[in-house]
Each structure stands twice: as structure tokens, then as C-alpha cells.
Amino acid sequence: MHRALWSHCASDVKRRNVFSALYSVLTRPVIASTCQRRPPQFLPATRHISWSFRQPQAQEFIEHPDNEEDVARAAILDKVMKGRQPTDLMLRCTVLDAEGNVKTISGQFKKSDLCAEHRLNARDLRKIDSRVPNLVPTILVRKEAILVNMLHIRALVKADAVVLFDTYGSADSRLHSVFLYHLEHNLKTKGAGPPYEFRALESILLSVLSALEAEMVFIRNLIGGLLAEMEDSIDHDRFKRLLHYSRRLASFKNRATLVEEAIDEVLSQDEDMDAMYLSDKKNGVERAKHDHEELEVLLESFSKQVEEIVNEAENIEVR
């Protein structure tokens, strides 16, 4: 009996020891982790350090945006100015004299000299500067000259001279040669015909009209041939070609319309048409106000012909 009692007490002591050891084991990590836990102010401090590291960069960018833009602009301007050559102030021109003879072929002239000689403003020459892209045809009337910018022709017409500016990037040398030949022949014509400046203007408009007609015929044949092919079979390649031809036709119609509008704009300005009689002005001939029937007939004739080309282009688009 004593053994049984002793065994029971011993087992009870062992259980208590086990519970005590287990309790100490379970509570030790909790106490240790509590002791090793980071202070609550540590995370905010980390955020503060992180933001304080990025903030100066953002602040610096916000405070100096204008400086960076100014530096970029200055760099671009400096690069452009370094690339400019003295020849940028020069224009290549072909000059015909009062007799219709070619006086200078592709000669180089300073813009300032041209402005002084022909009493022009610098902005007037920008309209006919061959290196400046300008798709809008214009006819400008000045005191002693008529400035024409149409398609492949950029010219300055006076009462006794014609200055043709070389067209940069023009690939049709044959068209230019035909125009120059016709211009020479027209200016050399003697007799009681139109004055010198109107003969020059007639040659210019005739060359423009010929260029439009030739391109119209070319596009018409392209589209007509393609439509004939599509009657037999339709495929992806033919659709792509049709799209390309349609865009080309739309571009052509736009250019022809702009030419027509440029001529009509002069026709709507009686003062400009009066000022275009350069020979009478040079010779001191008095003219009645709005007495410009000769010029009006010339311009209306070409305007109607260009209008017909525009209408034909529109009909092809509808078809």
C-alpha cells in the first residue's frame, strides 16, 4: 500500500514538473519576442527616411522646370544655328531680260539684294523661297512686281524682266524646259499684243495648266486600268492599289482646287488687277479705275479650264 501511495505521489510530482517545464518553454518565446520586438516608432522612422530620400529629387524637379526647358531650347537653337551656312541667305534664280533672252541661268543672289532691287519685303520672298515647303498657290501683287507660286513655278514678274526661282526637289526637268522655251518665245513676241508682264503670266499659267492636265490623264488611266482588271477578278493586291490611287486622286484634286482658288482670289480684287498693269505704271500711262478687262479675260480663261479639271477629278471619285 505504501508503494502504491508513493508511486501516485511520484507520478503527481512528475506531472507538475512536466507542466512547469512546458509552461516555461511556452512562455519563453513570447517574452523573448516581446523583448525583441521593434519599437513602434521604428516603422514611421523608416518611412520618413524613405520619403526624405526621394523628396529632394521631386522638389528639385518642381522648382526648376523652366530651367530645364530653357536649356533644351538653347541646345536645339545652338544646333540649328551651327548647321546654318551663309548660303542660306542666297537664292538660285534664272533671269530673263526685257527682250526675252536668258540673262542668267541658276545664278546665286542674296535675298537682301533681291528685296532692294525689286522693292520687296523679306516676307514676300518667303512665299517663293524654293527651300520652304509651301503647298498653297499664291499670286501676290506688289508695287513693281507680281509674285507667283504655283506647283512647279515660283516666279517674280516685272514690266521688263522675269526672275525664275529654282524649285528645290523638282524632278520633272522636261516640264521646266518646255516652260522656259515657251516663256522665251512668248516674251520675244513683238507687236501690239498684251504687255510684257501679261505674256509672262500667260506662260506661267499655261505651264501650270499643262502640268495639271498631264497628271489628270495619268491618274485617270491608272484608275481606269485597275477597274478593268477588277471586273475579271478582285483580290487584296488590287484593293490596296485602288486605295493608293484614290488617295493620289484626292491629293491631286486638292492641289487643283487650290490653284483655282488662287486665280479666283485675284479676280475678286479689282485693286490687285489694276496694280498688275506694270508696264503702264512704269511708263506713266494713266488708266481708268477698274479698267482691267484684258487681264480679267486672261485669268477667267485659265480659271475655267482648271475648274474643268477639278470637276473631272470629282467625277472619277464618285465613280
TrEMBL record:
Example GO molecular function: magnesium ion transmembrane transporter activity
Keyword vocabulary terms for this entry: Coiled coil, Ion transport, Magnesium, Membrane, Mitochondrion, Mitochondrion inner membrane, Transit peptide, Transmembrane, Transmembrane helix, Transport
The keyword Magnesium appears for this protein: yes
Any one Gene Ontology BP term: mitochondrial magnesium ion transmembrane transport
Compartments where located: Mitochondrion inner membrane
Transmembrane segments: none
Entry similarity comment: Belongs to the CorA metal ion transporter (MIT) (TC 1.A.35) family.
Full protein name: Magnesium transporter
UniProt organism field: Agrocybe chaxingu
